[in-house]
Amino acid sequence: MFGKIKNGFKTFVTAVKTKELTEKNLKESLDELKLVLVKNDVAVSVAQKIIDLVKEKLLGMRLNRSNKIEDFLKEAITSTIREILSASEPVDLLQMVKDKIAQDKPFVFVFLGVNGTGKTTTIAKVVNYFKKQNISSVIGAADTFRAGSIEQLEKHAQKLGVRVIKHEYNSDPSSVVFDTISHAESKHIRVVLIDTAGRQVLEKNLMKELQKIVKVSEADFVVYVGDAMAGNDVVTQVQKFSELVRIDGSILTKVDADIGGGAALSVAYLTKKPIIFVGTGQGYDDLQPFDVDWFVKRIAEF
Questions:
Q1: Alpha-carbon gap, residue 43 to 27, rounded angstroms
Q2: Fold category of 3-85 in CATH
Q3: Considering only CA atoms, which of 214, 178, 182 is closest in space to residue 196?
Q4: What share of the chain is helix, strand, coil (3-state, %, to 5)?
Q5: CATH code for the structural domain at 93-290
Q6: What residue spans in the chain does CATH classification 3.40.50.300 cover?
Q7: Chain segment 170-204, per-residue pLDDT in tens
Q8: For labelling, which of 39, 52, 155, 196 has a CA lying 20 to 30 Å from the CA of 210?
Q9: What single-letter DSSP state applies at residue 107?
Q10: Contact 84, 269 (CB under 8 A)
Q11: Phi-psi map region of 148: left, alpha, beta (phi>0 left; psi -120 to 50 alpha)
């Protein structure tokens, strides 16, 4: 996982540790590092920011013992990655839900994204996450557009022991949202998870529909579900979505298969919104809260 970027950082340290840390000596190695980052799905502007931060930390540093230089280089890289990932304020999602529970009101999630990102399966994983915290959930099948979407949700829900609130295909998704929240309130169900139809930003009618869903639901948290394997495309997608609808955080799927690793860096830095979970496999348990230490260890420690 994330092996290519890690190797890029390692190559950079090997090339630089025997040199005096001057701008001239650093330039070639920094240029090569930037190329590695961009090739592994780090957006160009984010890659340049990383290079600038590393360069700023290293310039003028003079140490005699190579092991100290290597330690300093590694620290410069890890602190830079932490700085990039800290562009957004972290959220304690579980505490946010518990605070809403204390008010005896359901916490409402709306999930959105383009087609094929694994959004429906991700919703099932989030249900499972809250189930393990002894927090009840109900799913709203507001994707009334894609054939088979409701049945897919129901299969997951049956396995997890939760209910799906649904209407007929081609019905108004906002009415599904209203009924799901009403059901949660009457049954004192703690979390509402609204599935929406995958769509592209250029689909204006569907985007207006999404804006209506977010408004009607009075969503506590709007989640963009993106495919880490989509690389720079996922960054472009989430940025375009955020121009038209509120996004509070992201979930990246297929992180276990992402040998690049750049999507997480780019999404966190460019959206200024937290990554709340990452998908690490196909099972319901293969979802973990995004942790900066976990990410840094896999991408910048060697």
A1: 20
A2: Four Helix Bundle (Hemerythrin (Met), subunit A) (1.20.120)
A3: 214
A4: 55, 15, 30
A5: 3.40.50.300
A6: 93-290
A7: 899 999 999 999 999 999 999 999 999 876 666 77
A8: 155
A9: E
A10: yes
A11: left
pLDDT tens-digit readout, 74-123: 888 888 888 888 877 778 999 999 999 999 999 999 999 888 888 999 99
Report yes or no: 249 and 276 within 8 Å, Cβ to Cβ.
yes
Amino acid identity of residue 18, one-letter, is T
Question: What is the C-alpha to C-alpha distance for residues 216 and 173, in angstroms, rounded to an integer?
Answer: 10
Output the pLDDT for position 259. Answer: 55
Give Cβ neighbours of residue 184 (< 8 Å, ≥ 6 apart).
Answer: 106, 138, 190, 191, 192
Cα–Cα distance for residue pair 149/147, rounded to 1 Å: 6
- Name the residue among 59, 109, 86, 121 with its Cα closest to residue 214: 109
Q: How many residues are present in the chain? A: 302
Retrieve residue 298's tokens. Answer: 């896999």
pLDDT digits (tens, 9 = 90+) for 202-221: 677 878 888 999 999 999 99
Q: What is the pLDDT of residues 270-280, one digit of tens each?
A: 888 899 999 98
Comma-separated ranges of CATH 1.20.120.140 domains in the chain = 3-85
Calpha distance 244→223 (Å, rounded): 14
Q: Which of 289, 274, 287 is nearest to 85 (CA)?
A: 274
Question: CA 96, 100, 106: angle at the middle one, nearest 5?
Answer: 115
pLDDT of residue 116: 80
Beta strand 163-165 with 249-253: parallel, antiparallel or unpaired? unpaired
Higher local confidence (pLDDT), 8 or 186: 186
Instruction: Please answer whether residues 86 and 193 qualify as being in contact, where contact means their C-beta atoms are separated by less than 8 angstroms.
Output: no
Write the single-letter amino acid at 178. F
Q: CB atoms < 10 A from the CB of 144, how many?
A: 21
